[in-house]
From TrEMBL:
Protein name: Zinc finger protein BRUTUS-like
Cited Pfam families: Hemerythrin, zf-CHY, zf-RING_2, zinc_ribbon_6
Keywords from the named record: Metal-binding, Zinc, Zinc-finger
Polar residues biased stretches: 560-580
Domain CHY-type: 985-1054
Source organism: Hevea brasiliensis (Para rubber tree)
Length: 1241
């Protein structure tokens, strides 16, 4: 499938897409010394693109019958899903909230796109789970879904590179960018980072890998231990198993680097005695561990430590809730909320570890999924209740109810978790103790710990160890050390140091178990200096490690202004004071991450819940697991929905979605080489493309600028405009494939015809035919995937628009403003487009939706002739067309019914129509009296007969029309004007002085032939209604026939009457470019609406496209020219719009402005009169008034600014002191000398 954007290719350094090159141009990536940390994201995007390309190629090969390892393919899909979704969750938790604080209205769209991509993964894995070997349709469906996923992800990444990354580089310093990337890394679970980094390093070239190393060295804090952890993971790609190979087999050993590369090349020069000591201790512990593997307490019982700590914390939260209820004090509600947030994250990640590691290892079908879901729901309800309390305020009348609910929720949550923990302890622990060795139990506990992100582990370990006795804490650390693989030495050292921070005064416990992470005496002086800030920065009250020392080499990176909230783990009251003193008074000197949790005030609870759902299932979180608080507000706005004018866009969305669905379905049938089906498919695709283009252009040109015009909505639509560009590229790609498919189909047809004609069985043509058939099948499969991709892309685009953008119209636009926007959209749509769009849209709507849509259109076009046009094109024949029905047909039908009735009575005279036409006036009156005197006739029939007798002469005149039409040899010489007329007699060009055309119109009023209505009106005492014209005469064959674009007589062979023909106006023109405006319901000179003209619904006139911002005057054109008094609306002469909103003929304007400069209607200036007024200033300055007039003043009214004021006495010129205009008039001849402050009002 063709990619919507240029892709990144590996092997020769990074080749950025066009959007990524724009990131470079911002100045953040151009210097090798100051490369932007955002470069990391570009490398990740490249790796994702490469993986998508590879998967799509394999899926296409599978769909075309080639042999593919299906199991390996499925594992790669699963690995890609885990990698990409964790990347998205980290973006939603760190990058987008930070950007939203600096640049509004950008982040939400990309978060919504993450949800759409998550649903694509859902669909893909639903398809994968339904795989059956004999399912013939499965490979094609897999290729289509893979193509759709590839398109969606590549479009999303390209948009990020074009919009998000430049903003990050522009709005954040290099230090702040580094801080954001570091928080990003620390927000991803440890086990996933250990898989992500080596995969990323293996997906890029060696040169790029070296650049990424340099970039990471600037991002990671300048602490050797932290850098050793990250670069150990990076180096693990040569020996580490892929994530996809172990994710479904939790019974396997933890996927890590089996090689003993604990210290990588970057740290060879700074190896310390502490590191040598740790490695020595490590070997001793491993050798002695196996000997005691069957004695002592089961390590799996450490789950009880977690249970007890969680229950203790929840008890304290419940007690705090009761205190709040009794005191009614809201001052600590934020701290209470932070505490709840922390314990919720601990519970959810604890359940992730159980679902992902422990339960599958014990029994693949064993799960507490229902209990975990119930706990999540209760945490969410508890948090929502706290938010409602904060919103209500301390003086709320319902405060008592809030307090009661708070206590009730706390008690319910405690009861649920206690019941859940009891069931686990009874059902799970005995099985684990029975079936697993001590070492395996330790490994399971360590693996379950590593499903947490680093920033949470930094807070959790001090909190957990602080709740244990000293012996329990020692055993916990000892088991963690013995369970961790050798490649995780630096990581477990960090964990141990963090755990020791939970003891009294942060004293070290690990030396007592032989695994001290950092002894001061064993660390070289330079490492002591670099780490001392972290040790001194720990605050036991908050149970977290922070950076707060003057020795920190990069303080700006870890204390950046992008963070605004510190909600570290709360201190469980009494936990520290109840423990015995540590066996050593030496503090651990491991560094902290320097990451403030809940970055930028964004709650990570919903993200944590989503990660839990990802960890135990292949399915993504539901749409209601919102990542942003304000998304819930938008969704609630759907309650009590009220129809709005702007909702007309929804109707187009519905029609587009319906056509996309049909396109997707029909594309699966193209592999049958059916010519008719291919032609129909191509036609429907072209039609949909045209409608989509008109819709997207209306949004880009009208709707989105209207949104951006509101100050609060800047940047809200940029992402959607990028979507339109990408979707247009998808349509172009599909069009190219369709063309190639059509050419290939023609080649196959020609080959079949040659084979049939020659009857030969030559090998070469047969082989060529087989190749064509194979290529046709490949193209059909590719096209099916592309149609799936365009459907998914547009469906998600539409859903995001309706979710994010359309609620903004309710809050920021009045109904009148929405009507104006709808009017502008419709006003740029030509009649031909409307004729196609209206049936297309209405076919996708219910009758009620159709009525509402038409009501909206009529309201927006209430000042126009749109309803008249609509009646003619959308509601069948109008009354006028029914009345103009062929008289011969109508009279014949009525005569037949009349004769059928009269046959029942022999007493009545039965004249035929020919007899009636031969009667004189006396005979007609006699027949009328006979009809009235006949008592056998029904009164309705009497009235009918009398009416026809009275109008018989008019009917006779009209009956000449069908007689002439039916008989081509009829004599037309009796009709006036039956000879041709010429616009150029010398060149024999048909037409008249007014128009060039090849026909004459037969006036319905008098039956005579004229070249145009102006020629008719010139010689007649009445006006011609050209819309009532039914017949014309071809000036080539002189045959009268029904009006139409071509001559229907055989001798003319389709001779065109004119280049342009309008069926409504019965208008022909062979010279100019003409369009029919459905709102004027007239033909106008120009290329068309939306091209060089638009129709203003207020003024009810067509204006140049550059006059979008003009002064509107309701029905301003429906008046006479103020100079010549001709009706402007239907005038064929050029009309000029004046600045004041009035109109006059251009010719009249030229003549009028020779002696006037003000509007003849409102007296405002007709243009910029600055030069003329400057001349008057000079003239008056040189003029000296007589002495008796010098002190006189006159009251004036300025026609330009509509303000009253005073001016010095003059016979002709009076200048407005406010605007400087001389376009004024005197309203009082003399007045007192004004004060300077009161000269205007």
């Amino acid at each position: 499938m063709a990619s919507p954007l240029p892709e990144l290719q590996g092997g020769e350094g990074i080749i950025l897409s066009n959007s990524a090159k724009k990131v470079e141009s911002k100045g953040g990536l151009e210097s090798s010394d100051k490369k932007s940390p955002i470069l990391i994201f570009l490398y990740f995007h490249k790796a994702i693109r490469n993986e998508l390309d590879s998967l799509h190629r394999l899926a296409m090969a599978f769909a075309t019958g080639q042999t593919v390892d299906v199991r390996s393919l499925f594992e790669r899909y699963r690995f890609l899903m885990f990698i990409y979704k964790h990347h998205c969750y980290a973006e939603d938790e760190v990058i987008f909230p930070a950007l939203d604080m600096r640049v509004k209205n950008v982040a939400q769209t990309y978060s919504l796109e993450h949800k759409g991509e998550s649903s694509l993964f859902d669909q893909l894995f639903e398809l994968l789970n339904s795989y059956m070997e004999n399912d013939e349709s499965f490979p094609r469906e897999l290729a289509s879904c893979t193509g759709a996923l590839k398109t969606s992800l590549i479009q999303h990444m390209a948009k990020e590179e074009e919009q998000v990354f430049p903003l990050l580089i522009e709005k954040f310093s290099l230090e702040e960018q580094s801080s954001l990337i570091w928080q990003f890394v620390c927000s991803i679970p440890v086990d996933m980072v250990a898989e992500l980094l080596p995969w990323l390093a293996s997906s890029i070239s060696p040169v790029e890998c070296q650049d990424m190393h340099k970039c990471l060295s600037k991002i990671i804090p300048e602490e050797k231990l932290l850098q050793q952890i990250i670069f150990t993971w990076m180096e693990g790609r040569n020996g580490t198993k892929t994530f996809g190979s172990c994710i479904n087999n939790p019974q396997d050993q933890y996927c890590t680097n089996s090689t003993a590369s604990a210290i990588i090349h970057e740290f060879n020069n700074v190896a310390s005695a502490c590191e040598q000591y740790k490695i020595g201790k490590r070997k001793y512990m491993e050798s002695s561990n196996d000997a005691s593997d069957t004695v002592g307490t089961h390590p799996i019982n450490e789950i009880l430590f977690w249970h007890n700590a969680i229950k203790r914390e929840l008890n304290e939260i419940a007690e705090e809730a009761r205190k709040i209820q009794l005191s009614g004090d809201f001052t600590n509600i934020s701290d209470f909320d932070d505490r709840l947030q922390f314990i919720a994250e601990v519970c959810i990640f604890h359940s992730i570890g159980e679902d992902k590691v422990i339960f599958p290892a014990i029994d693949g079908e064993f799960s507490f999924f229902q209990e975990h879901g119930e706990e999540e729901s209760q945490f969410n309800e508890f948090k929502c209740l706290i938010e409602s309390i904060q919103m209500a305020g301390a003086n709320s009348n319902s405060a008592a109810d809030f307090y009661a609910k708070l206590c009730l929720h706390a008690d319910q949550m405690m009861e649920t978790i206690q019941r859940h923990f009891y069931n686990e302890e009874v059902q799970v622990l005995p099985l684990a103790q029975k079936h697993f060795s001590f070492r395996r139990q330790k490994e399971l506990l360590y693996q379950s710990l590593c499903v947490m992100p680093l920033k949470l582990i930094e807070r959790v370990l001090p909190w957990l160890v602080g709740s244990l006795t000293e012996d329990e804490a020692k055993n916990f650390l000892k088991n963690m050390w013995s369970a961790a693989p050798s490649s995780d030495t630096a990581l477990v050292t960090l964990f141990t140091g963090w755990a020791c921070k939970g003891r009294n005064q942060g004293l070290c416990l690990s030396s007592a178990i032989g695994c001290c992470p950092a002894k001061k005496n064993d660390i070289e002086e330079d490492i002591v200096r670099s780490r001392s800030a972290f040790a001194s920065g720990f605050c036991s009250k908050d149970r977290a490690v922070s950076l707060c020392g003057d020795d920190n080499k990069r303080p700006a990176k870890r204390n950046t202004p992008v963070s605004c909230k510190n909600s570290n783990a709360p201190n469980p009251s009494g936990t520290l004071s109840s423990h015995e003193p540590s066996c050593t008074n030496q503090s651990c000197c491991v560094p902290g991450l320097g990451v403030i949790n809940n970055n930028l005030g964004l709650s990570s609870l919903s993200t944590t819940k989503s990660l839990r759902s990802l960890s135990f299932s292949s399915y993504a979180p539901a749409l209601n697991s919102s990542l942003f608080v304000w998304e819930a507000d938008n969704s609630s706005s759907g309650m009590g929905y009220i129809e709005r004018p702007i909702d007309i866009i929804f109707k187009f969305h519905k029609a587009i979605s319906k056509d996309l669905e049909n396109l997707d379905i029909e594309s699966g049938k193209l592999s049958d080489c059916d010519e008719t089906l291919l032609q129909q498919f191509t036609g429907r695709f072209r039609l949909l493309w045209g409608f989509y283009r008109a819709h997207s252009n209306a949004e880009d040109d009208i709707v989105f600028p209207a949104l951006e015009s509101k100050e609060a909505l800047h940047n809200v639509s940029h992402s959607y405009m990028l979507d339109h560009k990408q979707e247009e590229k998808l349509f172009e790609d599909i069009s190219c494939v369709l063309s190639e498919l059509s050419h290939l189909h023609e080649s196959l047809q020609r080959a079949d015809m040659m084979e049939d004609s020659t009857g030969s069985n030559m090998e070469l043509p047969v082989a060529h035919g087989d190749d064509c058939i194979l290529k046709y099948g490949e193209l059909a499969t590719k096209l099916q995937g592309m149609c799936k991709s365009i459907r998914v892309s547009l469906d998600h685009h539409i859903l995001r628009e309706e979710f994010e953008l359309w609620p903004l119209f309710v809050r920021h636009f009045s109904v009148e403003e929405q009507d104006k926007i709808v009017g502008r959209i419709i006003g740029t749509t030509g009649a031909e487009v409307l004729q196609s769009i209206l049936p297309w849209v209405t076919s996708a709507l219910t009758q009620d939706e159709q009525n509402k849509m038409m009501d909206t259109w009529k309201q927006a076009t209430k000042n126009t002739m749109f309803n008249e046009w609509l009646n003619e094109y959308c509601k069948g024949p109008t009354e006028s067309s029914v009345q103009n029905e062929t008289l011969e047909t109508r009279i014949t039908r009525e005569d037949r019914e009349f004769q059928k009735t009269l046959d029942q009575s022999d007493q009545m005279f039965k004249p035929g129509w020919k007899d009636i036409f031969r009667m004189n006036q006396n005979e007609l009156e006699s027949e009328i009296r006979r009809v009235y005197s006949d008592s056998t006739l029904d009164p309705r029939r009497k009235a009918y007969l009398v009416q026809n007798l009275l109008t018989s002469r008019w009917i006779a005149a009209q009956q000449k029309l069908p007689q002439t039409k039916s008989g081509e040899t009829s004599n037309v010489d009796d009709i006036m004007g039956c000879s041709p007329s010429f616009r150029d007699q010398v060149k024999q060009v048909f037409g008249c002085d007014h128009y060039k055309r090849n026909c004459k119109l037969r006036a319905a009023c008098c039956g005579n032939l004229f070249a145009c209505r102006f020629c008719h009106d010139k010689v007649s005492d009445h006006s011609m209604d050209r819309k009532a014209t039914l017949e014309m005469m071809c000036m080539l064959c002189l045959k009268i026939q029904a009006v139409g674009p071509i001559c229907t007589t055989p001798e003319c062979s389709g001779f065109s009457m004119a280049k342009y023909y309008c069926n409504i106006c019965k208008f022909f023109d062979d010279e100019r470019t003409i369009y029919h405006c459905p709102f004027c319901n007239l033909c106008r000179v120009g290329r068309g609406l939306g091209i060089d003209y638009f129709h203003c619904m207020t003024c009810n006139c067509c204006l140049g496209i550059k006059l979008v911002n003009h002064k509107c005057l309701e029905k301003g054109l429906e008046t006479n020219c103020p100079i010549c008094c001709d009706f402007l609306f239907t005038s064929s002469a050029t009309v000029r719009a004046l600045p004041c909103g009035h109109y006059m003929h251009s010719a009249c304007f030229q003549a009028y402005t020779c002696s006037h400069y003000t509007c003849p209607i409102c007296s405002k200036s007709l243009g910029d009169m600055g030069v003329y007024f400057g001349m008057l200033d000079a003239l008056l300055a040189a003029e000296e008034l007589p002495e008796e007039y010098r002190d006189r003043y006159q009251d004036i009214l300025c026609n330009d600014c509509d303000q009253k004021g005073t001016a010095r006495f003059h016979w002709l010129y009076h200048k407005c002191r406010l605007c400087g205009s001389y376009n004024t008039r005197v309203i009082k001849s003399e007045t007192a000398k004004p004060n300077s402050s009161a000269s205007h009002q």
